[in-house]
């Protein structure tokens, strides 16, 4: 005797959160049954593995049918096929769009293309996230990217409204979209120590300060692309390193302020010119799209690594960057205060976030 | 020309992409009614079109309005090729035709395609302007209300119960027409859907006409079924109970919370008043004043009867053995050419008696007659005798008024039947005649107003095997009509044999396999209170009959003047107090129609009651129950040789009685094992397949306090010589005793010691036993005759017993072969229900009162393939039993989050769709209840049982508790799925007009624009006639939908399970959408009457047909009585408001 057909349909769709997670994680039905058995769902119920299997199958089918709706979460609220209580809908969406940080770290900044999707099996093998789950996460990134790509208005807000995500998750997606759009390099070995959250923070900084939307919040692609004019203006900062007087003046101002306040003063003084050149060169190169991609690697190579080898503490870093930024205002011949602040504000918070082991 | 139908197409959303190139759709809509079609403009390049059409107006006959559905087709415009259909929506106009139901249909309805399923939604507005037609000869019956609910609907009061209505229409099945070979599956499916929709409309109209003719204004317990007879056609048939209902004004609307409280009762209509005042609904003629009507009651003498005659007639002689037996044989006479045979079976309590009809076909006569003679076969009387009997009965109508009064005086003593004089006999005949002058004194109701049911005799059922023949003339479905008529006659005569004049809880069903069809009917023989049949009245609406455990003070007062009636209510002085009256035997003690042990009623000690009672009705509210009930199922599988035509039909009809017998035995054993003594809601289904027959009997077992405590089960060995065998038997006995003890604990069955003698004590001491043979296949005739002899012996024994002392006999299972051993094994292996769960197949579980609002309706379907072709009956039985048990286990597991909860109205349907396939479908509702208050109630119950005073106290306590539980319906922490939705449903109705979330306006491209989103109204669905903790304020009309779904890409849709899963989900969605469009927020009395699944995996194809029905209602929460129900007007603005937004 074999069960040919076995369905269970309810008027108000029941979804077991545990099974949903297993499904999202890409477990097969059999594996999910195993996990559930070990989890002890059957305790207290006089049910067999068969019952569990049937239940898991039912739920998996329901999820599969729901998946189409989850692709445009707004539909989930006014579709008629499944009667799902609102709080459950929220849970379904939030979990569906959740991602593994190990996975996202692998694809962050990569082009969300078919080519990348083909390589997902490598990613899966490397991260231990099942291929199915990798594909779901990748498709989610791509879907969000495609939808918000052409929308006006703030990125985070658009994501939140079109995908009904929580603020936190919407911000993360904004970062992913931003990275994918600008193709920032994040995969180099030197960047491995950085977590997704580090990058997401930096992305947030860049979005709110360097993009078109930072000035005018009703432009298309406002949050996705960096503001061209601003990048042009950044070239003007070069004077800080090309003008010898200015460089010396800047150095002495910073050193005066720092003297006696940190143990790493000597190293700071010795490296000032190098570090300053590094930061200003990064700024000057940003007009070139290719260089934009290397923004993070440059930050690490030109600034973070030298400081780390000199054993600066996080406090040292903060102190240094604060004075480095502020001292520029005192330079009488330096006319680009606004651009400098806009640039250094982001650089400072990014470096502080990225300066860890 | 009395009607104008208006439709407006507002918008569409979520449409599928029809143009691959642009990923868009150029949609337009065709609106068709009858032969008139209108079209909207094409709304180009959008998946969310806004048509905002003008009002399309159809001027049509009301006859057409009733028959035809409004058909809305959404198409994709194509300049160069034919327009592609996206899908259709059929809208049943019927709810708009009754002034008391819905006034507008407005909302988002799923666009359905039989190949692709739901493809987006469409927003429509439909209205009807109806002009009154006073033509006497009209063919329409607009305004007659239909209810699937098998009790008096919650916001109505019944003024009159007119009786049985039935109708049947036949047609050729489009699937089998020649044209089907050349048309697409889609066209064929749509033709079928449309035809069935038309046929059900016509059927409903015809039934409505009959109701109007009888003077009624509503059909309650409307049951419509399809018979897909294949080649020979399509039959749509319906039965129901015609009533005159009065709408209760909102102020006095009854409290519908049921089972929890008895407080709100309308004071407006005391029985006596309502009795004399004609119903307010003046367009309905009063029954007896309708002269042209053939069934009309006799004028004056009977009208006085309601107020003066005692409702409970004590059993007396008139229904003599002779007359009943002659009647029983009515069906013996062959009437139709292809009639094969119809074995009728009484399903009476105690040992079952089989009454065989000798077959009419000479070819099969030999076999059956020999069996028949071994039984107590009746000698077939000539047909005319029936007619003469009819005429005699009709004469009784002319009794004079004086006689009636005298008779009622006599009846007041509450004396036992045999003392009654001839006058009483006459009286009895008289009331009987009131019913019997109708062709069929049959009622589809399962729940009755208090006092309606006087006595219950037992289950009567009939099955008949027919060979299907092509229906030649669809306009004259005489053959099918005659078949059913014959069956109903037989049911009626069975009821008479039980000393009853009516059948309640009646239902009909069929099982078809190729050309063989089993027609089945069953019901409960009962004596009814004649008051309800005429202009008398009952206040059912007022005192919710489920609840009221004690009379409403006002009611008692008003009735006291009438003598008898009031004492009925007060309970003790009268012969038949309400809490036990219905179990008193209606038949003659000394001429019992079947062997049964009688004792004096354990409640009133005045009248005789049987030891066990089987019924098809719901547990009457006034019944006193000890402990809780539970679902009891008997399952049986019998192989049969493949055969054709008459040979096949004969072999099936030969098997049927044995199956009935065995199912009955199983039921009885399981009942005893649970220490219970009555079954309610009994439903026996026998399904026929090519090489097997399946039998499934489901019922809810309870312990009725008025009936004697059931004895234990004793096992007797046939061959006591073997020592190890003895040992085996004694271990078995011990297991059975343990199980009984455990069950008593589980179901909380602790009968009051006052009357009950501990049955345990008797198990060992018994001297006299009723011999029962455990059901086992009957291999040869010798055995079978032995079997039946044993039962008849037992009946002989019976008459010698002294039954007056409530002595209990043990129930003996005799083990004489391995089969029986296995049967006992299977008896014991019924898996126990997990803790926290209860289950029943009736409306509510006896013993559980404090429901929370958490409920979950579900449907589960399973198909099993029997891999081994050469299975024995035993093996098949095991498989079938396991299958049902596993299904139940699965349900318990899935619903574990609702604990403590009860699965109510568990309705199993079995079918044999193909050789070696068994299909089981279950629909039920899981309702959670409050544990803490439950225990308190239990205590109260045990305390209160038996004594009236305490009973009063009990119900008052219940009131208090109910308010507590009602005040915090959502306070339950355990994740009850729907409890949270309750809240949202209220919100959604108030927020319907709310503007779009702001972010939408930002979208750039119009295609990205998101469909406007008024939140979807939450629609609850339940197979019950009520929703706990709520009050139904309006019935919006009947929902009766038929869908076909087909696929040619079965694998891609997730195989058979994926296909059916999405189809059932789609059906639910469409039902909900239609309920919401009518303005409702729930569907009660939901049932899935048909689920026919066919597959062909090799061709990657599958097809499924589903028929669902129910009553769309508006309910409000009990806790906020003042809340305004969703207003229809606001709904309209909301939908138009939604138009402009996208």
Characteristic terms for this protein:
heterodimer, A: 357 residues, mainly alpha, 3% strand, elongated, B: 1142 residues, alpha+beta, six-stranded antiparallel beta sheet, four-stranded antiparallel beta sheet, 35 strands
Structure description:
- The complex is a heterodimer of chains A (357) and B (1142).
- Chain A has 357 residues and is an all-alpha fold.
- Helix content of chain A is 67%, strand content 3%.
- Chain A has helices spanning 17-24, 29-39, 49-70, 73-78, 86-97, 101-107, 114-118, 120-127, 131-149, 155-163, 167-182, 196-210, 228-234, 239-242, 244-258, 265-285, 289-293, 295-309, 314-330, 337-354, and one strand spanning 2-10.
- The longest helix of chain A has 22 residues, at 49-70.
- The radius of gyration of chain A is 26 Å and the shape is elongated.
- By secondary structure, chain B is of the alpha+beta class.
- Helices cover 30% and strands 27% of the residues of chain B.
- Chain B has 23 helices and 35 strands.
- The longest helix of chain B has 30 residues, at 185-214.
- Chain B is globular.
- The chains are: A mainly alpha (357), B alpha+beta (1142).
- Chains A and B meet through strand 1, helix 3, helix 4 and helix 10 of A and strand 29, helix 18, helix 21, strand 32 and helix 22 of B.
- Chain A: This is Fibroblast growth factor (acidic) intracellular binding protein a.
- Chain A: One of its GO terms (biological process) is platelet aggregation.
- Chain A: One of its GO terms (cellular component) is nucleus.
- Chain A: GO terms for molecular function: fibroblast growth factor binding.
- Chain A: It holds the Pfam family FIBP.
């Amino acid at each position: 005797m074999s069960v040919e057909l076995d369905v269970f349909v309810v008027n108000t769709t029941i979804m077991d959160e545990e099974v949903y997670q297993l499904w999202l994680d890409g477990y097969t039905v059999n594996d999910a049954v195993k996990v559930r058995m070990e989890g002890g769902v059957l305790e207290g119920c006089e049910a067999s593995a068969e019952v569990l299997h049937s239940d898991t199958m039912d739920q998996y089918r329901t999820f599969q049918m729901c998946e189409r709706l989850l692709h445009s979460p707004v539909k989930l609220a006014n579709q008629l096929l499944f009667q799902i209580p609102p709080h459950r809908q929220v849970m379904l969406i939030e979990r569906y769009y959740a991602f593994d940080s190990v996975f996202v770290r692998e694809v962050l900044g990569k082009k969300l293309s078919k080519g990348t999707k083909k390589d997902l099996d490598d990613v899966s093998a490397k991260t231990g996230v099942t291929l199915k789950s990798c594909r779901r996460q990748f498709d989610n990134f791509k879907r969000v990217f495609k939808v918000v790509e052409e929308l006006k208005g703030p990125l985070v807000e658009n994501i939140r409204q079109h995908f009904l995500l929580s603020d936190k998750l919407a911000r993360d997606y904004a970062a992913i979209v931003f990275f994918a759009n600008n193709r920032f390099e994040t995969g180099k070995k030197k960047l491995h120590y950085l977590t997704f959250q580090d990058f997401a923070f930096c992305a947030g900084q860049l979005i709110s300060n360097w993009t078109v939307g930072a000035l005018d919040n009703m432009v298309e692609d406002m949050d996705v692309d960096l503001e061209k004019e601003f990048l042009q203006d950044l070239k003007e900062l070069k004077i800080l390193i090309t003008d010898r007087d200015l460089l010396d003046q800047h150095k002495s101002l910073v050193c005066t302020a720092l003297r006696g306040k940190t143990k790493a003063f000597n190293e700071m003084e010795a490296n000032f010119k190098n570090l300053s050149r590094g930061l200003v060169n990064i700024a000057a190169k940003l007009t070139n799209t290719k260089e934009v991609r290397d923004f993070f690697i440059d930050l690490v190579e030109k600034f973070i690594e030298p400081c780390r080898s000199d054993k600066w503490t996080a406090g040292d870093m903060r102190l240094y960057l604060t004075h480095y930024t502020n001292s520029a205002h005192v330079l009488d011949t330096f006319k680009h205060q606004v651009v400098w602040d806009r640039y250094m504000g982001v650089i400072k918070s990014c470096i502080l976030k990225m300066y860890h082991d | 020309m009395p009607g104008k139908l208006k439709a407006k197409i507002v918008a569409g959303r979520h449409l599928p992409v029809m143009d691959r190139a642009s990923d868009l759709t150029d949609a337009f809509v065709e609106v068709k009614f009858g032969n008139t079609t209108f079209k909207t403009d094409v709304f180009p390049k959008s998946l969310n079109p806004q048509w905002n059409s003008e009002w399309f107006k159809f001027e049509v006959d009301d006859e057409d309005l009733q028959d035809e559905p409004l058909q809305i087709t959404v198409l994709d415009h194509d300049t160069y090729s034919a327009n592609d259909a996206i899908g259709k929506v059929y809208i049943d106009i019927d709810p708009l035709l009754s002034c008391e139901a819905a006034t507008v249909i407005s909302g988002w309805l799923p666009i359905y395609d039989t190949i692709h399923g739901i493809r987006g939604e469409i927003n429509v507005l439909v209205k009807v302007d109806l002009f009154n037609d006073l033509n006497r000869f009209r063919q329409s019956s607009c305004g007659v209300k239909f209810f699937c609910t098998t009790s008096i609907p919650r916001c109505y009061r019944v003024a009159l119960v007119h009786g049985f209505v039935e109708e049947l229409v036949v047609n050729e099945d489009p699937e089998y027409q020649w044209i089907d070979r050349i048309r697409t599956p889609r066209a064929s499916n749509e033709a079928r859907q449309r035809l069935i929709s038309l046929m059900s409309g016509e059927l409903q109209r015809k039934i409505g006409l009959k109701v109007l003719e009888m003077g009624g204004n509503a059909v309650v317990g409307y049951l419509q079924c399809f018979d897909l007879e294949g080649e020979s056609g399509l039959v749509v048939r319906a039965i129901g109970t015609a009533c005159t209902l009065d709408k209760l004004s909102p102020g006095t609307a009854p409290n519908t919370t049921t089972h929890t409280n008895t407080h709100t009762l309308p004071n407006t209509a005391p029985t006596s008043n309502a009795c004399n005042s004609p119903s307010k609904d003046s367009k309905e003629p009063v029954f007896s004043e309708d002269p042209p009507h053939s069934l009309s009651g006799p004028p004056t003498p009977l009208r006085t009867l309601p107020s003066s005659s005692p409702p409970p007639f004590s059993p007396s002689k008139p229904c003599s053995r002779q007359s009943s037996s002659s009647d029983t044989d009515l069906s013996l006479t062959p009437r139709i050419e292809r009639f094969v045979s119809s074995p009728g079976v009484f399903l009476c309590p105690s040992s079952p008696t089989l009454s065989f009809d000798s077959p009419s076909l000479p070819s099969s006569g030999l076999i059956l007659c020999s069996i028949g003679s071994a039984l107590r076969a009746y000698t077939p009387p000539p047909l005319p005798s029936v007619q003469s009997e009819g005429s005699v009965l009709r004469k009784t109508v002319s009794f004079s008024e004086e006689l009636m009064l005298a008779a009622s005086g006599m009846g007041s003593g509450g004396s036992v039947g045999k003392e009654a004089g001839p006058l009483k006999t006459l009286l009895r005949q008289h009331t009987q005649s009131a019913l019997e002058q109708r062709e069929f004194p049959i009622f589809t109701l399962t729940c009755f107003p208090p006092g309606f049911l006087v006595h219950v005799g037992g289950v009567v059922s009939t099955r008949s095997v027919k060979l299907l023949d092509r229906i030649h003339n669809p306009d004259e479905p005489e053959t099918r009509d005659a078949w059913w008529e014959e069956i109903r006659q037989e049911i009626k005569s069975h009821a008479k044999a039980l000393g009853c004049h009516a059948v309640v809880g009646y239902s009909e069903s069929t099982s078809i396999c190729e050309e063989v069809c089993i027609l089945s009917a069953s019901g409960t023989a009962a004596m009814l209170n004649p008051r309800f049949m005429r202009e008398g009245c009952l206040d059912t609406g007022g005192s919710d009959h489920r609840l009221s455990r004690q009379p409403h003070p006002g009611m008692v007062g008003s009735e006291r003047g009438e003598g008898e009636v009031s004492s009925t209510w007060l309970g003790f002085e009268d012969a038949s107090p309400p809490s036990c009256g219905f179990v008193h035997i209606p038949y003659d003690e000394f001429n019992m129609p079947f062997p049964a042990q009688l004792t004096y009623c354990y409640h009133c000690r005045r009248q005789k009651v049987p030891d066990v009672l089987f019924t098809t009705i719901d547990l009457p509210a006034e019944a006193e129950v000890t402990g809780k009930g539970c679902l009891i199922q008997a399952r049986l599988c019998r192989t049969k040789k493949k055969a054709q035509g008459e040979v096949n039909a004969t072999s099936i009809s030969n098997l049927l009685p044995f199956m009935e017998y065995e199912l009955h035995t199983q039921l009885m054993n399981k009942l005893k094992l649970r220490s219970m003594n009555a079954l309610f809601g009994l439903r026996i289904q026998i399904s026929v397949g090519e090489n097997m027959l399946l039998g499934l009997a489901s019922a809810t077992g309870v312990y009725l306090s008025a009936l004697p405590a059931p004895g234990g089960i004793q096992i007797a060995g046939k061959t006591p010589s073997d020592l190890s065998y003895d040992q085996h038997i004694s271990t078995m006995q011990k297991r059975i005793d343990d199980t009984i003890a455990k069950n008593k604990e589980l179901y909380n069955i602790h009968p009051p010691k006052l009357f009950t003698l501990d049955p345990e004590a008797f198990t060992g001491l018994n001297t006299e036993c009723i011999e029962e043979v455990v059901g086992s296949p009957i291999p040869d005739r010798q055995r079978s005759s032995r079997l039946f002899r044993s039962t008849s012996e037992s009946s002989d024994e019976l008459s010698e017993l002294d039954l007056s002392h409530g002595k209990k006999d043990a129930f003996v299972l005799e083990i004489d072969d391995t089969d029986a051993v296995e049967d006992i094994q299977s008896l014991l292996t019924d898996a126990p229900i997990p803790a926290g769960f209860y289950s029943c197949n009736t409306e509510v579980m006896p013993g559980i009162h404090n429901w929370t609002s958490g409920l979950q309706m579900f449907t589960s379907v399973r198909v099993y393939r029997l891999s081994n072709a050469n299975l024995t009956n035993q093996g098949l039985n095991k498989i079938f039993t396991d299958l049902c048990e596993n299904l139940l286990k699965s349900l318990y597991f899935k619903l574990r989050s609702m604990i403590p909860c009860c699965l109510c109205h568990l309705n199993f349907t079995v079918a044999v769709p193909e050789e070696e396939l068994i299909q089981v479908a279950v629909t039920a509702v899981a309702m959670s209840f409050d544990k803490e208050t439950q225990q308190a109630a239990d205590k109260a119950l045990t305390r209160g049982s038996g004594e009236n005073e305490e009973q009063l106290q009990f119900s008052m306590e219940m009131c208090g508790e109910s308010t507590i539980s009602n005040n915090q319906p959502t306070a339950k922490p355990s994740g009850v799925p729907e409890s949270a939705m309750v809240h949202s449903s209220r919100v959604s109705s108030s927020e319907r007009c709310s503007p779009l979330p702001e972010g939408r306006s930002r979208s750039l491209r119009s295609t990205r624009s998101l469909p406007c989103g008024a939140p979807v109204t939450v629609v609850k669905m339940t197979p019950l006639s009520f929703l706990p903790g709520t009050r139904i304020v309006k019935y919006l009309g009947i929902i009766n939908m038929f869908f076909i779904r087909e696929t040619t890409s079965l694998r891609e849709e997730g195989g058979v399970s994926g296909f059916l899963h999405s189809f059932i989900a789609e059906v639910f969605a469409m039902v909900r959408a239609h309920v919401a469009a009518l303005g409702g927020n729930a569907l009660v009395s939901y049932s899935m009457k048909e689920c026919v699944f066919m597959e062909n995996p090799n061709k990657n194809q599958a097809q499924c047909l589903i028929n669902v029905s129910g009553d769309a209602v508006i309910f409000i929460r009990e806790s906020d009585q003042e809340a305004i129900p969703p207003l229809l007007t606001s709904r309209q603005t909301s939908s138009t408001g939604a138009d402009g937004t996208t």
